[in-house]
Write a structure and sequence with these properties.
Rossmann fold, 5 strands, about 55% helix, globular
Length: about 450
């Protein structure tokens, strides 16, 4: 069985879990448990893809995972056949064999966890990437760009240790700092860590923002546990609270509440989070220390540090040159630009987008160096100056498209198809003889994303 075959089998398992066929009602929990365990092993397959043949142990683990997935697929097929034929005659119960497969999976998982553990403390066999499984039933996982987490490793390890520590009571962990410091990026890095994926039965991520609606937060968390239906959307806030509490009860869960501005958002929700003394955790990100202190009983806060000059330069290089390296004639001015960003990741990423999209000449880089304000750190409100710098250098045809995002609420999920249709209706898209308006609009969007 290949990696793609494992993916196909996982997709089939998910369809089986979601189907309403009463014939497999009693085996549904076993199938769901199998899916969750194989999903974790699939992350390992993805993480080891580039260098699995360099380490004999990793190569053997990959082979074992493929074999056990193939064995599980045969048993599941037998289970379905048994369910269909149960009224015809006696059939051997394949669910007994499934227990044996689960034991094999647990044995493999123990070895995989050992590799991930060593990776966390820089004695790894693998250079593990943050993985994202869009089909996961356990969480709506935010994507994290590995390039943007430079300088966060030590803080991430501390937070992971708190999340997975021995404390059994429900614990609230706060990440605080000014805008652009990397709070959300740090939280994403931790959230997507393979050990965290394995440790928690349920993970959920929802955005709160300055102007929040309790209903949106509840739906965001519930969608991490089950698929939202029309019936759920019609429920009152009180019913949604009851449903969320019921779904989380008895499970070890991790919920991230990103970008909290007002303690009222936490007070509206706190009673809906059950405390079953099983090691569940809630993570806050906030710009406001007083909000975090009110929500965090132990008063222990995590604050991402400003990047050092070396870290700033490394991040700028990776964003501008991707896999390449900086030409020697731009090295000094590039380091000056990185230094002028004051260690603020957002400023570095925005400026890097500006440099990457223009011709890489010393004159242009000198202009950028003069424009980047070195006082950005001393006045937290001045981080917007960097965004203004980037906007001012946008091509004219992209400025209207960029500003149009302001028509949507903060942290709102925007359908690409809807956005493109609106841009076209507003007349923002230039006609192109070689491409349709929709294709041109997609090019505009990708250009903005790359910046």
């Amino acid at each position: 069985m290949t990696d793609s075959a494992v993916d196909f089998f996982l997709d089939n398992l998910m369809q089986l879990i979601n189907c309403d066929n009463e014939l497999i009602h009693f085996e549904r929990d076993q199938i769901k448990a199998l899916y969750e365990e194989l999903e974790f092993l699939r992350i390992f397959l993805r993480d080891s893809e580039e260098n699995r043949y360099e380490q004999e142990k990793v190569k053997n683990l990959v082979a074992q995972i493929r074999d056990v997935a193939c064995e599980a697929e045969v048993i599941i097929d037998s289970l379905i056949l048994n369910a269909v034929m149960q009224n015809i005659g006696h059939v051997i119960d394949p669910s007994l064999e499934l227990c044996g497969v689960m034991e094999e999976i647990n044995s493999i998982k123990t070895e995989v966890l050992g590799i991930y553990e060593r990776k966390r403390y820089d004695i790894s066999v693998l250079q593990v990437r943050n993985s994202f499984n869009a089909g996961s039933s356990r969480a709506n996982t935010p994507i994290v760009d590995e390039e943007s987490v430079i300088g966060f490793n030590d803080e991430a390890v501390k937070i992971i240790d708190r999340l997975t520590g021995e404390k059994k009571q429900l614990d609230v962990i706060s990440i605080i700092g000014m805008a652009g410091l990397g709070k959300t990026t740090l939280a994403r890095k931790v959230y997507n860590d393979p050990f965290i994926v394995y440790h928690f039965h349920i993970r959920g991520w929802t955005y709160v923002s300055q102007v929040y609606r309790k209903r949106d937060i509840l739906l965001g968390i519930i969608s991490s546990v089950i698929q939202l239906t029309d019936e759920i959307y019609k429920m009152s806030n009180e019913k949604l609270c009851e449903m969320m509490k019921k779904r989380l009860m008895g499970k070890r869960y991790l919920i991230v509440l990103d970008d909290i501005w007002d303690i009222g958002a936490w007070n509206d929700l706190r009673r809906s989070f059950p405390n079953d003394n099983n090691g569940s955790r809630i993570v806050f990100t906030s710009r406001h220390k007083d909000v975090a202190l009110l929500a965090t009983p132990n008063k222990l806060l995590h604050r991402p540090h400003f990047l050092t000059q070396d870290e700033s330069w490394n991040l700028l290089q990776k964003k501008v040159f991707r896999e390449g390296s900086c030409p020697s004639e731009l090295m000094d001015i590039g380091k000056k630009i990185a230094k002028n960003c004051g260690g603020l990741p957002l400023a570095i990423v925005v400026v890097a987008g500006l440099l990457a999209k223009k011709e890489k000449t010393q004159d242009w880089w000198d202009q950028v160096a003069q424009s980047v304000c070195s006082y950005i750190v001393s006045d937290p409100e001045q981080y917007t100056d960097t965004l203004a710098l980037s906007y001012n250098h946008l091509p004219h045809h992209l400025k209207a498209c960029f500003l149009y995002f302001g028509a949507f609420p903060e942290d709102y999920k925007i359908s690409v198809r809807k956005l493109i249709s609106l841009w076209i209706a507003q007349g923002f898209i230039r006609q192109n003889e070689e491409k349709s308006l929709e294709e041109v609009a997609e090019d505009y969007l990708m250009d903005l994303i790359d910046r």
